[in-house]
Amino acid sequence: MTAIRVLIVDDELLVRSGLGLIVGSAPDLELVGDCSGGEAEELVRRLRPHVVLLDVRMPDLDGISVLRRLRALPEPPAVSMLTTFDTDEYIGTALRAGAAGFLLKDTAPDQLVHAVRILAAGGSMLSPAVTRTVIGGFVEGGGPDAAALTLVRSLTGRELDVLALLGEGLANAEIADRLFLGTGTVKDHISAILSKLGAANRVQAAVIAHRAGLVRPTGQ
Fold first, then answer.
1. 20 to 30 A from 74, CA-CA: which of 99, 100, 145, 183?
2. Which runs of consecutive H residues, i.e. helices, occur in 25-169?
């Protein structure tokens, strides 16, 4: 099995070292490099990582600008933003720019490794601590959003089932188990969903699922 290639982009050497140790401890992950924001695009072009862990706030080149540059590449890696704060004002901007995840820097090592695996498999990952902030920021006001309802009307019944579970944060294999489908079939459904919704990634689709009222709020 080919190792998942990971690049860490952060202006703080100590943070890069700590995250690098975590990535390097997993047998199926390979740390291919680390750098600050200004070097990120060149290293991604040269090292071809599958996943980039990217700090949102950096002095030389901010994470959103780096994200946009990476997403514009011919075969962009999956990018998860890193932050210290669960109320980071850049969350919405990062997701709209194509970030596939948003993780806190103090995420537990096993959760970070799991997140990288999910991202490499084409999934999305939000730290539990930021999920409420992310979804809440998009669905404030209560009740289904008319625009989201219009979007999801283009989906088939099975695609709606898949989208609802995607909105809960489930990975492809978990959705497949829940709906008694093959993982390849789930992947095909998700590709169709993203195309129909005009969503850049699973996180944006999950937001639409919440806006359309397809996902029950936690605790209900």
1. 183
2. 40-47, 63-71, 91-96, 109-120, 128-139, 146-152, 157-167
